[in-house]
Amino acid sequence: MTAIGVVAIGRNEGARLSACLDSLKAAGAGAVVYVDSGSTDGSLKAAAARGAEIVALDMSIPFTAARARNAGLKRLREIAPEAVHVQFIDGDCTLDPCWLAKARDFLAQNLAVAVVCGRRRERRPEASLYNRLCDIEWATPVGEARACGGDALMRIAAVESISGYREDLIAGEEPELCIRLRARGHRIFRLDAEMTLHDAAMTNFSQWWRRSERAGHAYAEVSDLHRASPFGVWRAQTRRALLWAGLAPAALVFGVAASPVFLTALLAYPAQILRLYMRYRYEGADAMPRAALTVIGKFAEAKGALSYYLRRLGGRRRALIEYK
């Protein structure tokens, strides 16, 4: 495993970071770099005690996860030049002990694949509906994929060939990276294998709303950056968010200004919830809440997308949208 280095990023993850770093050792990882973004909870001490190489980011420069991952990879190359693969992982995740071996063997047998990921699961789905929705979100299809998430094993040479992550993105940096990798002829693959346990720690609606808003911002920015690319992602998600969020105010304006007939367009929302419920009904008690939140979430996503477009017009960048 010496050919596999790890870059973990985090801020104030506390016990979650300790568990993350312990899991890397159990998985047999090689050099481990921990990139910290201004923690005040003893994360640096915990990382040092576990033998991780520490990179403390200069917080006078706007932080992004993409910037942290690039800084971690740069340091990994300095301390472990023999590494050919890098496992990126968030500090609130733990790595499955069998993952690195499975992912390494897959890359060895599939030279065109630059990124391989597996199943990320929520650690405590029973804690809240929002955690369970996260767990469903992580269950992406097995096989060739358009993009990966924050946890993935990558060929270092492939990542360096496109100059790494785009550091000005506040979210969506992994799919954006994958777009550029695919444009170079590389492939992305999702294995049917356990990879990480994640701790979303979402217990209330406001956290879920902010996370959905961040997703909408990422949808708009990444799809806009690569609007001419055949490898682009999230165009449909952006359109759907803006359409569903725009329907209600349009119906109200035209219903008041022109004819009450336009108000019937509002029936599209309960109809959509019912349609989604019929799709999710086999999931049991979560089916209706999931259907309702999927529709409500379009308003949060649209807010995030519109904030991106407005700030782009003004030449300004948005600060991070954090949910925990």
Outline of this structure?
This protein is α/β, with parallel strands linked by helices and 324 residues long. Helices cover 48% and strands 17% of the residues. It has helices spanning 15-26, 43-49, 65-79, 99-109, 129-138, 156-161, 173-183, 205-225, 235-257, 268-280, 287-314, and strands spanning 4-10, 32-36, 53-56, 85-90, 93-95, 113-122, 143-145, 152-155, 187-198.
CATH superfamily of the largest domain: Spore Coat Polysaccharide Biosynthesis Protein SpsA, Chain A
Class based on secondary structure composition and strand pairing: alpha/beta
CATH class of the largest domain: Alpha Beta
Please provide the count of β strands: 9
Uncertain segments = none
Name the shape in a single word: globular
Order of helices and strands: EHEHEHEEHEHEEHHEHHHH
Q: Considering DSSP H and I runs of 4 or more, what fraction of the residues is helical?
A: 40-55%
| CATH architectural category of the largest domain | Alpha-Beta Complex
- Main sheet characteristics: 9 strands, mixed
Cα(first) to Cα(last) distance is 33 Å
Please provide a written account of the structure.
The protein is 48% helix and 17% strand. With 324 residues, it is α/β, with parallel strands linked by helices. It has two domains: 199 residues, Spore Coat Polysaccharide Biosynthesis Protein SpsA, Chain A (Alpha-Beta Complex); 115 residues, no CATH class. Strands 1, 2, 3, 4, 5, 6, 7, 8 and 9 form a nine-stranded mixed sheet that branches. β1, α1 and β2 form a beta-alpha-beta unit. α8 crosses α9, α8 packs across α11 and α9 packs across α11. The longest helix is centred in the C-terminal third of the chain and has 28 residues. The protein is globular.
